Amino acid sequence: MKASFLATGLGVLAIGLPAFAQSGVDKFARQLQMIQQQTRDRVNPDVPAEQRARIDYGGYFSSSFLAVDDTQQSTHLLYQPDLITYFRLNFDGAHEVFFRARASARIFEGGDSFDTHGNTQMAVVEQAYYRFNLARFQATQGKKPGSDDFTITGGRQFVLWANGLILGQYIDGITSEITLGNVELSLLAGVTVGQLTIDFDNSRRSFDDDTHRGFYGGMVSTQIGNHKPFVYGMIQRDYNNDDTMVVGTGPNSLKTDFEYNSWYIGTGINGSFGDHIIYSSEIVYEGGDTLSNSFAETSTALKPVSQTTEDVSAAAADFKIDYVFGDPGRSRVSFETILATGAHNRASSTSATFGGIAPGNTDHAFNALGLLNTGLAYAPAISNLTAFRLGASTFPFTNKGLRRLQVGADFFVFGKFNSNAPVDEPTDSDWFLGVEPDLYLNWQVTSDITFALRYGVFFPGSAITQDEHPRNFVFAGITFSF
Description:
Layout: E1 4-14, H1 25-39, E2 53-69, E3 75-91, E4 95-108, E5 120-133, H2 134-140, E6 149-160, E7 168-180, E8 183-192, E9 213-222, E10 227-238, E11 245-247, E12 254-256, E13 260-273, E14 277-291, E15 295-297, E16 302-304, E17 309-324, E18 332-340, E19 385-394, E20 405-415, E21 432-444, E22 449-460, E23 471-481
Parallel strand pairs: 1-2
Antiparallel strand pairs: 1-23, 2-3, 3-4, 4-5, 5-6, 6-7, 7-8, 8-9, 9-10, 10-13, 11-12, 13-14, 14-17, 15-16, 17-18, 18-19, 19-20, 20-21, 21-22, 22-23
């Protein structure tokens, strides 16, 4: 049995509110999601082949305090405790059942909540799946494993598709991997988990706690030496049951319906050159259709207009390369570029329907539910974005007490892809969004205790009009495992 307890957490950050968003919780959630994926204890290790059956169970407790400054420099204070428990049963390495649940609360100081929800409590099953591996099953029957294999996983699971450009979310559904020699086919059919998914359309009333988008796709990849090229297709269907949103009263009220369906065709290649260079790349084209904006701007007011269905034609790319020195400190440097198209015909938001594409225009704004590193403090949506990251990390000490201490830094430069198109907060027709240095420390103090520290500060650029002040993010956490 193993249990882990995250005893302390601290975060201080600032976020910019989209012009017509219902709250700043969308950017806030992206920041927490990145921290969670970087620091969460991996409680799902491989089972040794010599064990016929293994039961593993435990949990951990986390406690965090955050102070959040919005674009008006108002501070929001939040305390958030989380309790996570898990259970895992593995038999012969061929059959696996895994369950993980989380109970959490968000307790705001006074009226500091981002929306009308105020203090909230949530209990949710994060993962609950059954997995079968054919090769390991055949090994238990005395058959010699070959180069072919088949794995299928059904239930609630976290899916990071390809390199994470279009999908990195919890889903309810089925995934499978079929291996034939050096060719692998990956399949996915599932729907995002409502409570655990923050939608890219932050003008929907329930975008932060009730998002249901279906993803159906397949990916073919092959291993060629140290290189693994891949190609995929993915369909996204909008299953959100939102009522019409009405803003204002009388004949000039703005009525907005929501429907965003998309498909993606992507390709990329991951691999290495020699012992020191590791790289990954992903390029994707997005098509589909969306409902247009529900208003037009006049010199004095917003005028309601009829919504129409418009085509989506957008693209995005991610390129990353790491140089590993091979020294005792496991030092490395990395460079990454993220590109995502935008649409100048959108009124005020690169992702939302309200304030979205004007009727009669093709929507060139890229939108998906991916998960990439876009910094701690700014954490922009991957839409109308150009981002450059230069990073480095090392284990600087060799003595027994500190040899598992890692330090690292990232430096980001953010800009628009289309200077005349909006992002997720007010800007003018300028390219430069700002810069951000991030620092981090990971220290496995003992086999049972680990410590994590994150700090980032975003300096707004000339394109950002509402907030010229630096935005800080600080996180500290300690984990006890037994």
